[in-house]
User: Which sequence fits this backbone?
């Protein structure tokens, strides 16, 4: 467990919390209780009458109708750099869906893709099982020309994402942000921006077997170090399906984007001195984990995977596929500053966005990497302290010890959880009401952001739905309360690992 004293000294003091505009952590600020009324330290947390019920049977607010059309289109990721791909409503990333907590979302999805079914998954939201969008588990794919209405309560508040959950469609641009605004944020801010990070792949994703075959070739030729050998050139570039000891099979990405822009032509955000800006950092990438820092500024993390945490100031953070962090940036250092997101595995040029003060004397950002990428304080999971009620610290009713492995030189297209490959793996059976512990150890050379559908789980003193298991013998465990019956996927959010078998089903029996 987390050393609370160490944690306290790392966290912001009370005065700083107030400076950041944190309101008292009681009643309404606690948000939606997930696990009953007892805090992890044994103290009762106060509940106000205005508190929302646990996972609501229904939403209390108005219905919000949204329409998503999955279709072919073109997208410009830099000046004159246009690619054909698959899109929601012709946009990349897909349109932002934004609602208030407690409203009811009714989203009609039209499938106008050629000759293929599709589904949409609402990543992170603990919704009714039938709305979860997993083909073969919770629904049949929406056929070409068909449509489906996803209908569920927008709760709890948080930064989420939606994406296709069929095959490799996620890597074709079928992603977008979904924001559920809280009634009473526990941090104050003047405005906010959403930043969506993506490894951009034009054209069709290559099937795994093909990528694996190319990877095998490159291994024999050059021991798999991608990007360093002109002889390994893909027809479009030289990143095509190569095998890197660290990066595994890497699709031929054209670049790492923030909000659909290449680093050479980054998105810009205006800042005014003295204001506080909330940034929602969302990573629906298929195969890229980022180390993120903002030059000239610290980042105060206020939410992890959408759940509120005690604000903690850091210089950089790691954002795995499927993870989200909300941060508060205090605009106290005029200039033009890059936010840089460097890939943790592989050697692609970092994604970039620019923050430009209205009163900046300079017009161009300073070169080089933000100091936060070279040193300083890095966010760790042990730094995250939920302000919500957590499941009690007691021994679990059920425990799974799962080894994550795969990516072997001879079989780069096989990844396993507990020695099994999806969809042939037997379900992991649980019962409603149980406290379930999942302890993972990573026997492989790549990290795995592991995502559980339909539930938040507890990691240390925080709630999350996606957690990175570090490469080379990384170990981490999470606990969750089995409070949402159904059939739920649990998988690595590296799309290529998932497609290569790295998924299991949690099944209520
Ligand atoms: Cu974004 Cu199965 O997940
Ligand atoms: Cu993985």
Assistant:
């Amino acid at each position: 467990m987390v050393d609370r004293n160490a944690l306290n000294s790392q966290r912001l003091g009370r005065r700083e919390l107030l400076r950041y505009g944190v309101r008292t952590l009681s009643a309404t600020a606690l948000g939606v209780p997930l696990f009953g009324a007892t805090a992890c330290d044994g103290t009762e947390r106060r509940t106000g009458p205005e508190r929302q019920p646990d996972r609501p049977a229904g939403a209390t607010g108005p219905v919000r109708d949204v329409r998503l059309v999955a279709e072919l289109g073109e997208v410009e990721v830099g000046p004159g750099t246009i690619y054909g791909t698959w899109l929601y409503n012709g946009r990349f990333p897909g349109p932002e869906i934004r609602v208030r907590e407690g409203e009811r979302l009714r989203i009609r999805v039209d499938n106008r893709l050629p000759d293929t079914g599709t589904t949409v998954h609402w990543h992170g939201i603990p919704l009714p099982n039938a709305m979860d969008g997993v083909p073969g588990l919770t629904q049949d794919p929406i056929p070409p020309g068909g449509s489906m209405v996803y209908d569920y309560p927008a709760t709890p508040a948080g930064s989420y994402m939606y994406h296709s959950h069929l095959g490799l469609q996620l890597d074709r641009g079928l992603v977008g942000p979904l924001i559920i605004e809280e009634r009473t944020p526990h941090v104050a801010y003047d405005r906010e921006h959403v930043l969506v990070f993506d490894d951009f792949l034009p054209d069709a994703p290559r099937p795994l077997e093909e990528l694996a075959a190319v990877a095998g070739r490159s291994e024999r030729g050059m021991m798999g170090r991608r990007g360093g050998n002109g002889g390994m050139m893909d027809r479009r570039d030289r990143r095509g399906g190569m095998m890197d000891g660290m990066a595994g099979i890497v699709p031929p990405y054209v670049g790492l984007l923030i909000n659909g822009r290449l680093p050479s032509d980054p998105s810009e955000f205006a800042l005014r001195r003295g204001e506080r800006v909330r940034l929602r950092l969302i990573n629906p990438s298929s195969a890229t984990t980022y180390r993120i820092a903002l030059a000239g500024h610290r980042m105060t993390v206020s939410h992890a995977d959408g759940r509120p945490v005690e604000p903690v100031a850091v210089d950089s953070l790691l954002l795995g596929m499927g993870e989200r962090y909300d941060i508060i940036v205090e605009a106290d250092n005029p200039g033009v500053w890059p936010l840089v997101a460097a890939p943790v595995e592989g050697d692609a040029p970092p994604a970039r966005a620019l923050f430009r003060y209205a009163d900046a004397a300079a017009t161009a950002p300073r070169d080089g990497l933000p100091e936060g990428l070279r040193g300083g304080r890095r966010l760790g999971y042990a730094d995250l302290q939920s302000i919500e009620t957590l499941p009690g610290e007691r021994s679990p009713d059920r425990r799974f010890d799962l080894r994550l492995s795969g990516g072997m030189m001879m079989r780069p297209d096989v990844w396993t959880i507990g020695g099994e490959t999806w969809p042939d793996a037997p379900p992991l059976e649980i019962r409603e009401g149980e406290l379930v512990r999942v302890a993972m150890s990573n026997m492989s050379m790549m990290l795995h952001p592991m995502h559980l559908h339909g539930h938040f789980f507890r990691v240390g003193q925080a709630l999350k739905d996606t957690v990175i298991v570090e490469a080379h013998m990384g170990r981490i465990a999470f606990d969750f309360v089995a409070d949402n019956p159904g059939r739920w996927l649990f998988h690595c959010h590296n799309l290529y690992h998932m497609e290569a078998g790295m998924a299991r089903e949690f099944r209520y029996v």
Summary: The CA atoms of residues 344 and 438 lie 25 Å apart. Residues 1-57, 217-247 have pLDDT under 50 and may be disordered. DSSP finds five helices and 32 strands in the chain. Residues 446, 448, 492, 494, 497, 502 surround copper (II) ion (ligand 2) (CB under 6 Å).
